[in-house]
Design a protein that fits this description.
This protein is mainly α and 217 residues long. It is 62% helix and 0% strand. It is built from 7 helices and no strands. One of its GO terms (cellular component) is extracellular space. This is Prolactin.
Length: 217
């Protein structure tokens, strides 16, 4: 049953992710069709995370230039993900191990997806880029979920990895309150998203290397 569910989720994810990463897709039951390998899935989410960080960096820069063109901003910069312990460099990320690193990635994406859902005015400025970020974020989280399930089936991760109770998302739901965001809050929100999207991108690369070692790792 788990394998059937995984196959269905994988096909759905591959269908919706073609808007971000182009790749040949085959339908369930098609002659010659094969289930994507773990390496294929990693490649997709890494490309998506790189795109998300690139767009978030552009959006942050555009926001600063438009609203604060001549100021050296500091702001609060206490991100709503402050309670998620994240390694600061590659060496520390590698020391975490696959399960802990996967948990960190999942928690970061869940926290930002929750903020995205709770604060629609996150899309207020540079709407095309903001909407693109929203789409990539949801697809990236789905992709990481697929990878997590695949790794569980392969016995690489325990079955408890990847689930976070709603209570664990409380900080993200209260740190930014819908309707109360001023320009500085928006700036800090975009700053934090740019920072965390870079972390997610780097952690996914490290997770791939620790799971599927390659010469370029």
């Amino acid at each position: 049953m788990e394998k059937v569910l995984f196959a269905v989720l994988t096909l759905v994810y591959l269908e919706i992710s073609t808007s971000v990463v182009s790749a040949p897709i085959c339908s369930y039951g098609q002659a010659g069709c094969h289930v994507p390998s773990l390496a294929d899935l990693f490649e997709r989410v890494i490309q998506q995370s790189s795109r998300m960080h690139s767009v978030s960096s552009d959006l942050h820069s555009e926001f600063e230039q438009y609203f604060f063109p001549s100021q050296n901003l500091i702001g609060k910069r206490k991100c709503h993900t402050y309670d998620i312990l994240t390694p600061e460099d590659k060496e520390n990320a590698q020391r975490l191990g696959r399960e802990q690193l996967t948990e960190v990635i999942v928690r970061l994406l869940q926290a930002w997806e929750h903020v995205q859902d709770q604060n629609q005015d996150f899309n207020l400025y540079s709407s095309n880029k903001a909407l693109e970020i929203s789409d990539i974020l949801h697809e990236l989280k789905d992709g990481v979920t697929i990878i997590t399930e695949k790794m569980k089936l392969l016995g690489v991760l325990s079955n408890t990895v990847g689930y976070n109770s709603p209570e664990s998302l409380v900080p993200s739901s209260t740190f930014y309150t819908q309707g109360d965001l001023d320009s500085m809050d928006h700036h800090d929100l975009l700053y934090c998203f740019r920072r965390d999207s870079n972390k997610a991108k780097n952690y996914l690369r490290i997770l791939k290397c620790t799971t599927l070692p390659e010469p370029d790792c």
